[in-house]
Amino acid sequence: MPIIDFSDNINIARKYVEEEGHPLNILTEENKKLEILCMNMIQVLCEGEMSYVTEVFNRGDIDIIRKHYQVKNDYIYIPLKEKYGVIGPADFMSVDDKEVLSLYHELVKEEKRDDEWFGKVLIFAERVVKIINKEKNILFSAVVRNFNEDDYQRLLQGIKSA
Question: Could you identify which of 50, 63, 151, 154 might form a hypothetical disulfide with 147, taking C-beta atoms 3.0 to 4.6 angstroms apart as the criterion?
Answer without folding.
Answer: 151
